[in-house]
Amino acid sequence: MTDTAAPGARPEDHAPLIVIDTVEGYRAAVAEIAAGEGPIAIDAERASGFRYSQRAYLIQVFRRGAGVYLFDPPAIGDFSELQAAIGEEEWVLHAASQDLACLREVGLDPVRIFDTELGARLAGLPRVGLGTVVEQLLGIHLAKEHSAADWSTRPLPQSWLVYAALDVELLPDLRDAVADLLEAGGKLDYAEQEFQATLAKEAPVRTDPWRRLSGIHSIRSPRSLAVAKALWEARDAYAQEVDTAPGRLVPDGSLVAAAKALPPTKRDLAGIKEFVGRASRSQLDRWFAAIETGLAATETPSLRAPGDAGPPPPRIWSDRDPEADRRLKKARAGITVISEHVSIPVENLLTPELLRRLAWTPPENADRDAIAAALAGLGARAWQIDATAQVIADAFVEARQVDAESPDAAS
User: Fold this and answer.
1) Which domains are seen in the chain, by residue range?
2) How distant, in Å, are the alpha carbons of 321, 332, 335, 360, 364 from that of 352?
3) Which of 7, 280, 300, 302 pairs as cysteine with 226 (C-beta 3.0–4.6 A)?
């Protein structure tokens, strides 16, 4: 295994690259990509942690027989011509769920994908980061030093462009290597079902997103919680206005500290040592106005976040419903055995939240067919049902028998 296992494996080995940022260049690239052969390798770079939006600031495409193309999405805008040229082909992505939203935002929406990260998980590889999988399966060392860069930077440094190009140039070969592992393990059908589920999955709609403030659970006063909510909303609005990641303006900890302190004046707010950040003083009027809004709110939020009618936390099941607790523990143990036997992570074999919902509210007749129907209703794929339904049914029956044989039941 060596850094020079393939041409272009190192940045210094790669030919100079340009970013396509004109309509003419884009259309010429689309024609060349359409004339290529095989699947479409695609990736996107965002500016997470720097910008408010999760838009793509660079889109990389590679196809055998065509080459690698780096597109500037803000400059090009509409990718409908590229979509028309490649929309029916298989697209190869690594961790597709991370990129699909920003690709769809510019009109790029696949109908078939091969996710090399998800495929590697199902194949049983212990580590599935792109660099690790490429090194293990292709024998190429892939540097990842620019993964957290600010891709909204213009112009983009050449070393960043080479990094971005390598991310897609190796994907078709990686796709084939992962597919070989899956086929050898009898898991290719599992992977195809998971890939389609990834495409069909809708982005969750978050209720009360302000409750995701880091440290908010330390707030014990409803009034302080109202202030935290108002501060989060003010920061979010300003972050969107200036297209900057909210935490770069004022960190979560600063908002929580201000919400706890409830400063009566702007001077007092400025005097809170934890209230820091690049916009903590330049936008002091904005933050103090939010505090006043929270203090004046006629209704304060509940200290407990509203639930979604799902099961309670498993840690209290033994008190609330001992049989449900036994169902969950026995089913988990059975699924863990299957996971180890087939070399598929437990969370991919069956989503933990799905199992919790099923264990908390099982079908009345918990036989294999009833469990299978319940799993399907909760969104499990056919291969997951085939692998786990009988084990879950057996676990639920065993949990019920333990309950029936207990001294309390006999009395």
Assistant:
1) 11-200 (3.30.420.10), 209-296 (1.10.150.80), 314-410 (1.10.150.80)
2) 18, 9, 10, 12, 21
3) 300
